[in-house]
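Our consortium's second objective concerns turning raw sequence data into structural hypotheses that experimental partners can test. To show how far this objective has progressed, the report includes one record in full. It was chosen at random from the queue rather than selected for favorable results. The single chain below, 198 residues long, was entered without modification.
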Amino acid sequence: MFEARGEIKLDDVPVRDLALAELRGAMAYVPQDSFLFSETYRDNVAFGADSEELADAELAELIESACMTEEVATFPDGVEQMIGERGVTLSGGQRQRTCIARALAKDPRVLILDDCLSAVDTETEARLIRNLHEAGRGRTMILAAHRLSAVRQADQILVLDEGRVDALGSHEELLETSRWYRETWERQRALEELEELE
């Protein structure tokens, strides 16, 4: 078991002083490989909520935050559409965004997004990041990503190289201080511009 050096706090309380159930209850986690149930779209999102049932307005807000409004509107049964086992009827990006809506339904104090934007196109990613920035007010959001555009607006960006901290700072600071970050940013921007031309 890995023991971290230093101290991790949640709202100024050391996590070691919190009951495990309280700590877990404060977090929502969205992995890259998102799992959905063979239930309605509504039930898949509501699974993350603390309350028994989400009100229609709250559900619509969560779907909007996850940039799924247009897609859900095309479902024959709307939010009552049955989603196949493991979300087989949805694209990878739709599954990831649905799981983001589910995590937001929990209204967590800490939202952990583990490369869960990998299957989303760059235009949708930009809208989603704006929405998550708004939804993240008042909570801690940890976003692991390979595309630097996903973390550009972060307060702090931690660059890891083989499990070790290579650089730490804001986007602007890392462009100045980290050769790897600057070169990766320039390469990814060039690829995005080429995709836009196609």
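The partners drew two points from this record. The CA atoms of residues 32 and 116 lie 4 Å apart. The chain has a mean pLDDT of 87. Both points have been shared with the crystallography group to help prioritize constructs.
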